[in-house]
């Protein structure tokens, strides 16, 4: 008989007793004791057992016609979901005459009793996963209720040093943070804040970094966990509550009063993205005087074009605003729901390809770990980056697939496509474009619309 060894570990379990090498050795010995040949070893490193979206598992399932048995170290290595466990055993293994054997529970599917026990144990595997998750959430809530932040020794909070999971003011960083708040109150603009800080000789951070610092009430003494709990912390505040809420009022005014002047505002506000560097395109205006006449020019350029105090230029094309807007409006006026679906299918293919690449990266990383090239501590940070990309692509794929299935949304979008765009007011045009378009990607002369 040919047996496939299936191994799944998370980075935390590698620190404990379920390492890849340990599972491989024990399962290989089991196969030898039964006089089974090892067909192949399928390893999913760092993947959750809560779903079946695992590359090695799916590869093994595609080869069941060449396999007589699947062997795992423990039942929860196959899955921590009762539904997925039953699906794998009944819909995949048994239908392909493949036996399933779990070493730790000494169970296999060759007998009715074994199949029944596997079903029962899968309930407990799922219960354990859900219990661990609930305990983690409760632990976080209890910590916040005690006035302690969620930041741990591995984390880093600008303005504070983390000692024994508690926050203590870092005077040098706190001094800079107070200056950031003071300058922002004067300038009421993060862009001007960045320019002022550069002139003062400080390292300039990204727009989002300053936005996070200026809106995080941790700095005026509070701690929170999602929408579940928000209380006064035990750490010493860096910013007074009065100043913090003055800054929030500035942000509130900025949000309520966007510049909607037709000559200077962007019809494609927050829609245009640079394909070269991933940053947004910014709408700009330039006034020039020629032969006594004043001329106004509008254009769209990558954020890196003028933000040289913060970013390196990426060299993408600068588009005349009227030309780009005319091009987009023309495509909107010729909007075809059928062609939109074709675009969505192309987008899904692209996302699936990117997802495969990230999974391949993850597998290569674990191959290096198995070969001793990385320690677990090194693996965690790299794996987190890859997991973040995988989660992003999976969410995009799920959203696109759900949209395609939702007939009501399709009908609404088809109705929107019949609107006479040119008859709308400027603000209505902006809102209308955002009801149809997710993003507009610029790569030199090439303009690609990502429809909603």
Describe the structure.
By secondary structure, this protein is α/β, with parallel strands linked by helices. Among the domains are: 2-139, Resolvase, N-terminal catalytic domain (Rossmann fold, 3-Layer(aba) Sandwich); 160-256, Hect, E3 ligase catalytic domain fold. 50% of the residues lie in helices and 18% in strands. The chain contains 15 helices and 15 strands. The protein has helices at residues 11-15, 20-33, 55-61, 75-78, 82-93, 112-145, 171-187, 190-199, 207-215, 241-256, 321-333, 337-370, 376-405, 407-416, 426-436, and strands at residues 2-9, 37-45, 69-72, 99-102, 107-108, 160-163, 166-169, 222-225, 229-232, 272-274, 281-290, 293-302, 319-320, 437-443, 446-451. It has a 5-stranded mixed sheet with strand order 2-1-3-4-5, with helices on both faces. A 3-stranded mixed sheet has the order 10-14-15. A hairpin with a 4-residue loop joins strand 4 (99-102) and strand 5. Helix 7 (171-187) packs across helix 8. The radius of gyration is 28 Å and the shape is globular. The two termini are 51 Å apart. Keywords: DNA integration, DNA recombination, DNA-binding, Metal-binding, Zinc. Pfam families: Recombinase, Resolvase, Zn_ribbon_recom. InterPro entries: DNA_bind_recomb_sf, DNA_bind_recombinase_dom, Recombinase_CS, Resolv_N, Resolvase-like_N_sf, SSR_resolvase, Zn_ribbon_recom_dom.
């Amino acid at each position: 008989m040919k047996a496939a060894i299936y191994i799944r570990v998370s980075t935390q379990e590698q620190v404990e007793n379920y390492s890849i090498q340990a599972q491989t050795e024990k399962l290989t010995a089991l196969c030898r004791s039964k006089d089974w040949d090892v067909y192949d070893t399928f390893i999913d490193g760092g993947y959750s057992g809560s779903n079946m979206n695992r590359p090695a598992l799916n590869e093994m399932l595609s080869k069941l016609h060449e396999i007589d048995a699947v062997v795992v170290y423990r039942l929860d290595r196959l899955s921590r979901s009762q539904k997925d466990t039953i699906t794998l055993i009944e819909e995949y293994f048994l239908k392909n005459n493949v036996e399933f054997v779990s070493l730790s529970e000494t169970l296999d599917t060759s007998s009715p009793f074994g199949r029944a026990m596997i079903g029962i144990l899968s309930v407990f595997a799922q219960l354990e996963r859900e219990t661990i998750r609930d305990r983690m959430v409760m632990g976080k809530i209890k910590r916040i209720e005690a006035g302690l932040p969620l930041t741990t020794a591995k984390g880093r909070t600008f303005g504070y040093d983390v000692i024994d999971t508690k926050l203590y003011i870092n005077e040098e960083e706190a001094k800079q943070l107070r200056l950031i708040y003071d300058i922002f109150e004067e300038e009421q603009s993060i862009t001007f804040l960045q320019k002022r800080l550069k002139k003062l000789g400080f390292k300039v951070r990204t727009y989002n970094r300053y936005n996070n610092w200026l809106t995080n009430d941790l700095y005026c003494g509070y701690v929170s966990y999602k929408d579940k709990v928000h209380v006064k912390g035990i750490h010493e505040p860096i910013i007074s509550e009065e100043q913090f809420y003055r800054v929030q009022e500035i942000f509130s005014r900025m949000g309520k009063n966007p510049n909607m002047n037709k000559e200077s505002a962007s019809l494609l506000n927050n829609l245009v993205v640079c394909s070269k560097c991933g940053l947004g395109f910014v709408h700009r205006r330039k006034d020039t005087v020629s032969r006594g006449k004043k001329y106004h020019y509008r254009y769209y350029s990558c954020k890196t074009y003028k933000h040289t105090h913060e970013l390196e230029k990426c060299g993408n094309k600068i588009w005349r605003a009227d030309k780009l807007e005319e091009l987009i409006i023309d495509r909107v006026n010729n909007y075809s729901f059928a062609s939109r679906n074709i675009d969505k299918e192309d987008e899904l293919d692209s996302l699936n390809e990117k997802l495969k690449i990230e999974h391949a990266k993850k597998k290569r990383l674990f191959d290096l770990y198995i070969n001793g090239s990385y320690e677990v501590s090194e693996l965690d940070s790299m794996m987190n980056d890859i997991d973040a990309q995988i989660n992003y692509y999976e969410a995009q794929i799920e959203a696109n697939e759900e949209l395609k299935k939702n007939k009501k949304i399709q009908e609404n979008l088809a109705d929107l496509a019949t609107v006479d765009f040119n008859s709308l007011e400027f603000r209505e045009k902006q809102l209308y474009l955002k009801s149809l378009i997710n993003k507009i990607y610029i790569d030199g002369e090439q303009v690609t619309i990502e429809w909603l």
